[in-house]
Structures are given as structure tokens and as C-alpha cells.
Structure to design on (205 residues):
């Protein structure tokens, strides 16, 4: 990864993903998290203020050093212990069945082998543990989908491999999760091509 990917992009993500308008979605997706939690694509820790008190500790998985450094203030302000515990969601260094819950927010779009990452999350979750997610992906409307396919190559180049057309729910189901909660909507204030969101919870078998 070059200077742009390492230094500039994590700062852009910190600002773009840190907009106030997104906070209600972060609050909703974090609701009900408890116990030992693994967060993949931790970024700059924008979910940290929304971790419920019932969260005992968080294992943060994030490749970008700059993202992790930008999280410092949020980490100082929380009582939840957060440890950077990995760099790649595709290969987690945790034992099977070791986490109560997992969290992924706008990350499944970017991980290169998303099926591998979901299989890893499923492996490390205890049976019945839930992955809380809010992700953008393939839009429900054909007209928007056509634009997503057209724009995806540019999106991937500018946003570090971010895909626009990943079918979030299908990917979760294919990885063996059971969707237990789901809300699908266009994110307010975002272009539809980037804002076709799925927010919910998926249970590991
Ligand atoms: C759009 S950002 C979202 C960040 C954060 N989840 C949030 O909601 O603000 C996508 C994140 O996925 C991270 N990422 C990219 N490849 C990854 C991988 N293989 N494993 C884990 N995280 C990855 C990026 O570094 C980036 O922080």
C-alpha cells in the first residue's frame, strides 16, 4: 500500500465515517452487544462511544496504523478495555468459540476475501453468538444497481478496495449465519450507490 492508502485514506475515512448523521446507526448497531466482543475493521474507533456497558472487552482488528492512532482519544474516554488484536479479518488469531459477539460497520465492503472473513468471525463466535452489522452493499433497485456496477471500479481505486455491489445478507447467509434482525434502507444524506445499507444481527450456529 502506498502513501495514499497508508496515510491519507484512513484520515478521509475518519472524517467521512465520523459524520454526526451516522451516529444513530452506530448506536443502533451496538445495542445489545455484551461480553467479549471482536470488532473487525475497527478503523479509528468511531463505534467506541456506543459500546454498551455490558461489553467486557473488545478485540479490535484493523490493518491501518493511522486509523488505530486516530482512535486514541476515544479509547481514553471509554471504560471498556479495547486491545488491537489483529490486522486482518480474513485470518483471526483467536480460538474457536471464544467470543460472545462480533461487530462490523461498513467493513465487509472492503475486506478482499469477505467470505474468508465471515467464516473466521463465525469460527471465533460461540454458538448462538451474534455478529452485529451495518454495511452498505448491492441496492434493492435495478437502476441504482446499474450505477453501482458502473462506478465500482472507481470506488475501489479511491476507497482502498471498497466494493459497491456486495450482497450483504446473501454473504452472511452463505457463511452459515442466521439473520435474526434486519433493516434495509438508503442512508440519509448519502448517495444511493454508496448508501444502500443493511443493519442487523446474524447468529452463528
Ligand atoms: C470504510 S472503513 C470503516 C471503518 C469503521 N468500521 C467505521 O465504521 O468507521 C473500512 C475499514 O476496514 C478496514 N479493513 C480493510 N481491510 C481489512 C481487513 N482485511 N481486515 C480488517 N479490516 C480491514 C480498513 O482499514 C478500514 O478501517
Amino acid at each position: 500500500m502506498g502513501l495514499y492508502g497508508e496515510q491519507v485514506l484512513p484520515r478521509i475515512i475518519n472524517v467521512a465515517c465520523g459524520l454526526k448523521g451516522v451516529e444513530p446507526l452506530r448506536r443502533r448497531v451496538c445495542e445489545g452487544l455484551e461480553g467479549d466482543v471482536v470488532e473487525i475493521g475497527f478503523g479509528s474507533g468511531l463505534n467506541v462511544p456506543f459500546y454498551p456497558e455490558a461489553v467486557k472487552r473488545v478485540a479490535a482488528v484493523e490493518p491501518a496504523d493511522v486509523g488505530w492512532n486516530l482512535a486514541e482519544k476515544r479509547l481514553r474516554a471509554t471504560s471498556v478495555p479495547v486491545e488491537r488484536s489483529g490486522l486482518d479479518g480474513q485470518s483471526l488469531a483467536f480460538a474457536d468459540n471464544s467470543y460472545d459477539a462480533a461487530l462490523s460497520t461498513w467493513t465487509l465492503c472492503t475486506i478482499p476475501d469477505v467470505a474468508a472473513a465471515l467464516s473466521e468471525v463465525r469460527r471465533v463466535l460461540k454458538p448462538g453468538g451474534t455478529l452485529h452489522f451495518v454495511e452498505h452493499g448491492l441496492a434493492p433497485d435495478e437502476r441504482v444497481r446499474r450505477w453501482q456496477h458502473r462506478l465500482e471500479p472507481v470506488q475501489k481505486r479511491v476507497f482502498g478496495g471498497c466494493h459497491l455491489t456486495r450482497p450483504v445478507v446473501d454473504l452472511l447467509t452463505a457463511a452459515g449465519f442466521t439473520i435474526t434482525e434486519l433493516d434495509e434502507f438508503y442512508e440519509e444524506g448519502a448517495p444511493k450507490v454508496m448508501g444502500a445499507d443493511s443493519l442487523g444481527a446474524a447468529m452463528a450456529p
User: Anything to note?
Assistant: Helices lie at 3-16, 23-30, 65-70, 72-77, 114-124, 142-158, 168-174. The mean pLDDT is 97. The longest strand covers residues 125-136. Residues 13, 17, 40-41, 43, 46, 61-64, 67, 88-90, 105-107, 110-111 surround S-adenosylmethionine (CB under 6 Å).
